[in-house]
Amino acid sequence: MTATSKQPETVIVRFAGDSGDGMQLVGDRFTAATAHVGNDLSTLPDFPAEIRAPAGTPGGVSAFQIHFASRDILTPGDHPNTLVAMNPAAVKAHLGALQPGGTLIVNEDAFTAANLRKAGYESNPLEDGTVDDYQVFKVPMTTLTTRATEGIEGLKPAEAQRTKNLFALGLISWMYGRPGKETIAWLETKFAKRPAILAGNVAAFKAGYNFGDTTEIAVTPVEVAPAPLHSGEYRNVNGANALAMGLIAASVRSGLQLFFASYPITPASELLHHLARHNRFGVRTVQAEDELAAANMALGASFGGKLGVTATSGPGMDLKAETIALAQMVELPLVVIDVQRSGPSTGLPTKTEQSDLMMAIHGRHGESPLPVIAAATPADCFSSAIEAARIAVAYRTPVILLADTFLMNSSEPWRLPDVNELPEIDPAFATRPNAGDEFLPYLRDERGARPWAVPGTPGLQHRLGGLEKEHGSGKISYDPANHALMTRLRAEKLEKLAQELPPLEAEADDGAELLILGWGSTQGVIGAAARRVRGRGIPVATAHLRALEPMPANTGEVVKAFDKVLVPEVNTGQLLSLVRDKFLVDAVGYNKVEGLPILAEELEQAILEVLGDE
C-alpha cells in the first residue's frame, strides 16, 4: 500500500465498447486479477445477442461491470465509479449510468466524425459540454497500441489494433493496483501457439500499465484492501461453472453416471460447453438435434439408471413440456434446468428475466405437479444443482431448476466445500420382486416414490408409457377411480416434500413491519437494499425462497407474521400472484422487466415508499 494511494472500501468499474472490442475478455481478466488480490466481487456482463452486432452503434455495445470491495458485497453495483469507453457508442449507451463526478476514460482515437454519426451524436461529446460533470481522461489508445506493437514480426496491422483492449486493461490494472503477472501468464497460455499474437497482446498490456504509471493519469492509484473472507480455498465461479460442478458432484454422490443432453440455445449453451470437458468423470454429453430430442434422451437415460439432465432457455421450455409431463407420468428422475431470459419468443436472448416461474409450475397439460427450485447466486447454483438431483432421485420425479442469464454469466468468489459433507443421494434401485414373487412398479415408499428398476434386472420386467397406470401393477388403466387415485398420489409427493424442506427463515429486525420476500437472483439486491434501509435506522425483515413448488411448510406463517409484504421480481409479479393466492395476504410487488437486474437504489426507494418513509 503506497502512502499516496486512495483506499476506498468499494469500487465499481464498467468496460464498454463494440462487441468486437473484447470487453468481455477484459472484464474476465480484470475479475481474475481481482479475485487473486482477495477482494470480494460480483460481476455483470451485458452484451448484444447478435454474433456480430452493428459496429459503432449503441445497440452493438458490449459491456462488463465489476464491483469489488474490502468487505462483503451482494450485487454488481448500481453506478460505476469508472467507465472505460472504447468509442462514442459506448459513451452514448453508458454515460448515464456513471456516477456524478465519476471517472470517464475514453479511447480518443475512436471519436472520428464517422463514429460520432454512427453513435447518434451531432457533435463531439468530449467537446460540447456533455461530459463536463465527470473527470475525463482522453487517451489515444489505438495510436499508443499501434506504437507499442511496432516491429513485432508476423503481427498484422489489424491484429495490432485489436489489442487495444489489452491496453485498456493494463491502464485500469495500474489504476486499481491489480497484478499484471496473472494476465500475462494467462496470455502466455492462451496464445502459446501464436507467438506474434502473444507478443502483441503482452506489449499492449504493458504499454497501458506503463502509461498509467508514467503519466499518473489518475493522479493517485486506487487500492482496495482484501476482503475478510472465511478461511478455506476459493475460486472464482459463474453460474455456468457452478451448475456444471454441482451436477458432477451429484453424479459422484449418487453413484449415477451423469448424462446431459441439450440443444444449443442462449444462454444455457454454456452449461453444455462446461460439462463436455469433463468426460474423465464419466460425464456423457449429447448435442441433440432439437429440444424435444434432448429431453427425450435425458429421460431415456434415467430409465436406463443414469442421472438424466437437460437444460434450455426461453422457448426451449415450451418444446420440452411434453417430455416433462411424460416424466411426471412414468415417475422417473429428470433434472430440467431452465436458464431464464427475457421473452417471450426470441425476446432479448442475452438479457436477464425471472419470467418462467408460472410456466415451470403450471406449464404442462393435465394435472402434473412437480418440484421447482431456484438458485439465488452464482455460487448457489452448485448446491441448487445437487438439491435438484437429490429431490429427483428421492421422489422419482422431474425437477425444474430455475437459473437466469444474470446468474449464468455473473461471477463471485466461492469457497470450495468439503466433498464429504455434500448430501448423499441414494438411488435405491429395485433389485428383487416387492410383492412375493411379483414386481409391482407402482408400489410406493413413505415419500410416495415408486421403485426404480434398471432395465435388464432379472424378474423386474415392467411396462412404462404415457397412458395412465393402474395403482401398484402399473398396467394401463382407464378406470375413473384409479385415475383420480393416481392423480392424488402424484400430487402427494409434493406435500411430503414440503414437510421435508428446511423451514423458511426470516432475518427480521426488532419492530420490523415489512417483509421483503424474494426468490432466485434477487437475493443479492434484496440484501443490499435492506442493508441500506437498516443504515437509515429503519427495521425490516427479509426472506428468500429456494423451493417454489412446493414452498416450505411454514411459508404462510412467515408472510402472515408481518403487516406488509414486498415481493421484488424481474418479471411482472409471478411470485407475488402465488403468495397472494396461497396465503391471502395483501402483498405488493416491485417489478422490473428491462432485461437488467434490479438496482439496490431502486429497491431501497420501493421499500421506503411501502413503509411511507420516502
Summarize the structure.
The protein is an alpha/beta fold.
Would you mind describing this structure in some detail?
The chain has 614 residues and is α/β, with parallel strands linked by helices. The protein contains 20 helices and 20 strands. It has helices at residues 23-37, 88-94, 113-119, 141-148, 157-161, 164-175, 180-190, 195-215, 239-254, 269-275, 291-303, 315-330, 357-362, 380-395, 405-409, 480-500, 523-535, 555-560, 574-583, 600-611, and strands spanning 10-18, 40-46, 61-69, 82-85, 103-107, 135-139, 234-238, 258-262, 284-287, 307-312, 334-340, 372-374, 398-404, 411-415, 507-508, 514-519, 541-545, 547-549, 564-569, 588-591. It has a seven-stranded mixed β-sheet with strand order 9-8-10-11-13-12-18, sandwiched between helices. β4 (82-85), α2 (88-94) and β5 (103-107) form a beta-alpha-beta unit. The longest helix has 21 residues, at 195-215. It is globular and about 85 Å long. The two termini are 41 Å apart. The relative contact order is 0.09.
Beta-strand residue percentage: 15-25%
Helix content: 25-40%
Report the biggest beta sheet as strand number plus sense, adding barrel if it closes: 7 strands, mixed
The parts where pLDDT drops under 50 for at least 5 residues are: none
Calculate Rg over CA atoms. 27 Å
Task: Provide the structure class.
Answer: alpha/beta
Average pLDDT rating:
95
* Termini separation: 41 Å
Tally of separate helices: 20
* Total count of strands: 20
| Coarse shape | globular
Give the strand order of the largest sheet, numbering strands 1, 2, ... along the chain: 9-8-10-11-13-12-18
